Amino acid sequence: MGDEDAELLAAVCEGSERAFNRLIDRHQQAVRNFLRGIAAREDADDIAQETFLAAWTQARAFRGGSSVRSWLFSIAWRKAKDAQRWWFRRWKRDAAFHDLGATGGAEDAAGPERAALQRALSSLSIDQRAAVVMCLAHGFTHAEAAEALDIPLGTIKSHVARGREKLREALGDIR
Fold first, then answer.
1. Which of 55, 76, 147, 166 is least enclosed, having the fewest CB within 10 Å?
2. pLDDT by residue (tens digit) across 44-56?
């Protein structure tokens, strides 16, 4: 997969829309699933689009030190962090003007287990959540996740271990 991705990215650098579409086809579902694990579901698709737009415009910036997949997840991670900062600033601004009480969310259409998992994931810090989703849901090694997230390897290992434990505590009997 790595060699083909590198060839596709080289073609993208030459302006090939066909190669770019193939790259999107190969990785968009994984990127979207990663983002759905760390961001609000309604924001994940938008952030994924921003990720691939950035990949198109920054294809020449890829240096080949990692896999194209890791590079895409790295872009997605930065975009998700930007979105979180934007959301927090907006929330803070709105809270100053409105009395925002706690709102109960509707249970996820996929069922109570999925809703419980989303609630449990949202209880983790975004760094922990990203490490857990990348390593446990998407099969990244700790080293790959550390590189993509630009977080030290030991910190990734701690985030995954602690995140896994928090999820076990939060989910209880639901499996």
1. 166
2. 999 999 999 999 9
Q: How far apart are CA 11 and CA 89, in angstroms?
A: 39
Residue 133 phi, psi dihedral angles, 5° rounding:
-65, -45
pTM: 0.62
Q: Please check whether residue 121 is in contact with residue 159, taking contact to mean a CB–CB distance below 8 angstroms.
A: no
- Residue 152 tokens read as 């030290």
3-class SS of residue 84 = helix
Are 124 and 163 within 8 A, CB to CB? yes
Cα–Cα dist 160/61, whole Å: 29
**Which residues constitute the domain of residue 168?**
108-175
For residue 107, give Cα distances in angstroms to 6, 104, 111.
41, 9, 7
Give the chain's mean pLDDT: 84
Domain endpoint, select from 39, 70, 99? 99
Query: At which of 78, 99, 120 does a domain end?
Result: 99
